[in-house]
Amino acid sequence: MGLPRTYGWHILKEPLFSGTSAMTEHTTAECPYPKLEAPVPRAERENDPLTETSVAERVLLDGRFIKVVEEDVVLPDGRPSRRFGLRHGGAAGMIALGADGTIVLERQWRHPLRRAFWEIPAGKLDQGEAELDCAKRELVEECGIHAARWTRLGELNNAIGYSNERIVVFLAEDLSWGTQALDEGEHLEVVRVDLKEALDMCADGRITDVKTIVGLFWLERLLASRSA
């Protein structure tokens, strides 16, 4: 079935399913789920009834910057289960915004998906390193950029189903330009694009990297609040 495409979104012109199936049985017109009024509270809670308790852990692979672990857990209903996951030391992402309204993007090869991606500069935290210190260091190393003004945009968890990785994204402003100091074996292209073009790239699929999409969303909201 062909799907018309409009600005990155698929619009369905016909139902995906025809006839009756188990999916359509026992339905009701009333939604059974409660509606939360704004502001909706944070998801984590003390004494959370959804908690899964870890009772044993085994490291299956201890890599250079990730660990693969297997855990025995007790589910909320008391039954045993097993979880597999990746342990990651965390990272920082940087949106370098120039006085002309352009931002810095990198094009970098990501081997698990066997292709290059457009993304904001980012890097892994060294042991014991603060996120902002990592952001400043990585922006100089990858792009040769120094920034006099830094703003924390937010924190994201990009793979909650199997990893504890967290990325803190910063806005870098009042930029000065120097020379890259790439790590050995690191290869990337650095460009500047208008912020509107970067947002369009997120909408039409040219950018699919999570930290970049979320970071640009935060930046757009911040700039809107500044001009309000």
Automatic annotation (TrEMBL):
Pfam families in the record: NUDIX (PF00293)
Keyword Transmembrane helix: no
SUPFAM superfamilies tied to this protein: Nudix
Catalytic activity: GDP-alpha-D-mannose + H2O = alpha-D-mannose 1-phosphate + GMP + 2 H(+)
The entry's keywords: Hydrolase
Residue intervals of the Nudix hydrolase domain: 86-215
Top-level lineage group: Bacteria
Cofactor: Mg(2+)
GO terms for MF: hydrolase activity
GO BP of this protein: nucleoside phosphate metabolic process; ribose phosphate metabolic process
One GO cellular component term noted in the UniProt record for this chain: cytosol
InterPro entries reported in the protein's UniProt record: NUDIX_hydrolase-like_dom_sf, NUDIX_hydrolase_CS, NUDIX_hydrolase_dom
Family statement drawn from the similarity comment of this UniProt entry: Belongs to the Nudix hydrolase family. NudK subfamily.
Protein's name according to its UniProt entry: GDP-mannose pyrophosphatase
Organism per entry: Sutterella wadsworthensis 2_1_59BFAA
